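Hi U.,

Before I forget, here's the chain from the pilot set. I'm dumping it here mostly so it's searchable later in email.
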Amino acid sequence: MSDDKKEVEIERLSEPLVVVSWGGDKPFKLIGHGFSKKTIDVYVCSNEYGNDVVPKIKVSIDPNATSTDGFLSVIAHAEPGANNDKVFWIAVNLNGTFQDAQEGLKVV
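Structure:
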Protein backbone atom coordinates (compact mmCIF):
# COMPACT_ATOMS: atom_id res chain seq x y z
CA MET A 1 0.00 0.00 0.00
CA SER A 2 1.47 3.37 -0.88
CA ASP A 3 2.00 5.83 1.94
CA ASP A 4 -0.33 8.48 0.48
CA LYS A 5 -3.29 6.05 0.70
CA LYS A 6 -2.87 5.34 4.44
CA GLU A 7 -5.51 6.79 6.70
CA VAL A 8 -3.83 5.31 9.78
CA GLU A 9 -0.06 5.29 10.20
CA ILE A 10 2.16 4.04 13.03
CA GLU A 11 5.27 6.20 13.26
CA ARG A 12 6.64 4.44 16.35
CA LEU A 13 5.75 2.61 19.54
CA SER A 14 5.92 4.31 22.94
CA GLU A 15 8.83 2.01 23.86
CA PRO A 16 11.74 0.98 21.62
CA LEU A 17 10.91 -2.66 22.38
CA VAL A 18 7.61 -3.67 23.98
CA VAL A 19 8.25 -6.73 26.14
CA VAL A 20 5.31 -8.87 27.27
CA SER A 21 5.55 -11.96 29.48
CA TRP A 22 3.66 -15.18 28.85
CA GLY A 23 0.27 -14.85 30.50
CA GLY A 24 0.87 -11.17 31.17
CA ASP A 25 -0.53 -7.89 29.90
CA LYS A 26 1.61 -4.99 28.70
CA PRO A 27 0.10 -1.54 28.10
CA PHE A 28 1.78 0.72 25.55
CA LYS A 29 0.93 3.32 22.90
CA LEU A 30 0.97 3.45 19.13
CA ILE A 31 2.16 6.89 18.02
CA GLY A 32 1.31 8.25 14.59
CA HIS A 33 -1.91 9.55 13.07
CA GLY A 34 -5.45 8.46 12.22
CA PHE A 35 -6.13 6.69 15.51
CA SER A 36 -9.40 8.50 16.17
CA LYS A 37 -11.09 6.30 13.57
CA LYS A 38 -13.54 4.01 15.37
CA THR A 39 -13.10 0.98 13.14
CA ILE A 40 -9.44 0.22 13.90
CA ASP A 41 -8.24 -3.29 14.70
CA VAL A 42 -4.79 -3.82 16.21
CA TYR A 43 -3.00 -7.16 16.03
CA VAL A 44 0.43 -8.83 16.03
CA CYS A 45 1.99 -10.25 12.89
CA SER A 46 5.35 -11.67 11.90
CA ASN A 47 6.04 -9.31 8.98
CA GLU A 48 5.72 -5.71 7.82
CA TYR A 49 2.85 -6.55 5.46
CA GLY A 50 0.38 -7.46 8.19
CA ASN A 51 -0.61 -10.74 6.57
CA ASP A 52 0.89 -13.34 8.94
CA VAL A 53 -1.12 -12.95 12.14
CA VAL A 54 0.38 -14.39 15.33
CA PRO A 55 -2.52 -16.21 17.03
CA LYS A 56 -1.20 -16.45 20.62
CA ILE A 57 -0.52 -12.73 21.05
CA LYS A 58 -3.51 -10.41 21.19
CA VAL A 59 -3.60 -6.62 21.21
CA SER A 60 -6.70 -4.76 22.35
CA ILE A 61 -7.50 -1.08 22.54
CA ASP A 62 -7.37 0.02 26.19
CA PRO A 63 -10.96 1.01 27.09
CA ASN A 64 -9.79 2.86 30.23
CA ALA A 65 -7.11 5.06 28.62
CA THR A 66 -7.31 8.25 26.66
CA SER A 67 -6.47 8.06 22.98
CA THR A 68 -6.31 10.81 20.36
CA ASP A 69 -5.76 11.00 16.63
CA GLY A 70 -2.01 11.09 17.36
CA PHE A 71 -1.75 8.09 19.68
CA LEU A 72 -3.67 4.97 20.63
CA SER A 73 -3.41 3.23 24.01
CA VAL A 74 -3.38 -0.55 23.66
CA ILE A 75 -2.68 -3.66 25.75
CA ALA A 76 -0.74 -6.68 24.50
CA HIS A 77 -1.44 -10.11 25.98
CA ALA A 78 0.72 -13.16 25.28
CA GLU A 79 -0.83 -16.56 25.87
CA PRO A 80 1.38 -19.28 27.36
CA GLY A 81 3.32 -20.93 24.56
CA ALA A 82 3.50 -17.82 22.38
CA ASN A 83 6.62 -17.73 20.23
CA ASN A 84 9.48 -15.97 22.02
CA ASP A 85 12.15 -16.46 19.35
CA LYS A 86 11.70 -13.22 17.43
CA VAL A 87 10.57 -9.61 17.46
CA PHE A 88 7.06 -9.18 16.04
CA TRP A 89 5.21 -6.37 14.29
CA ILE A 90 2.19 -4.45 15.60
CA ALA A 91 -0.26 -3.88 12.75
CA VAL A 92 -3.44 -1.86 12.26
CA ASN A 93 -6.43 -2.43 10.01
CA LEU A 94 -9.04 0.19 9.21
CA ASN A 95 -12.42 -1.17 8.09
CA GLY A 96 -10.73 -4.54 7.53
CA THR A 97 -7.99 -3.11 5.29
CA PHE A 98 -4.34 -3.24 6.32
CA GLN A 99 -2.91 0.23 6.95
CA ASP A 100 0.52 -0.03 8.59
CA ALA A 101 2.81 -2.05 10.86
CA GLN A 102 5.70 -1.26 13.18
CA GLU A 103 8.27 -3.74 14.46
CA GLY A 104 8.90 -3.88 18.19
CA LEU A 105 7.09 -6.52 20.30
CA LYS A 106 8.87 -9.40 22.01
CA VAL A 107 7.52 -12.17 24.23
CA VAL A 108 9.66 -13.36 27.14
